[in-house]
Amino acid sequence: TNRRPLFTHLAVRIRGRYVVAGTSSISPSTTYPSLLEDSRVGYRVALTEDRLPLLEEIHIWGPSQDDVEIQVYRRYGEEYGDLARPDITFTYFQPKRPQAWAWAAMRGSCSVSCGAGLRWVTYGCLDQARNEWAE
To answer: What CATH number should be reported for the domain holding residue 41?
Structure first.
């Protein structure tokens, strides 16, 4: 998220090619490659009543198999003060991986073939990656 897009703007390159903005100017809102793709880049720019950029947002749905580069461009240097300084925030999410091992119930056979009976349940260590019981 860019909270100061009047004097700065964001760009996105995938595999070395700009898909949002670039070096010269801010982009209109877009989605690359399309809304129908599972792995896509969504770019949105909100405008003021005077049609000046107010906020830029980039959302990348993944996982992405490509090299993705987010760039920040500023139009003016430090001598122009806080208004020209980028105000960029980001959040990164990584999927939770299941633990390799877990305690799991091992159900034994029932004590009777018909009617009420007993079933022994013991717990063992399960290798979830291989779906095998550990010794």
So the answer is: 2.60.120.830
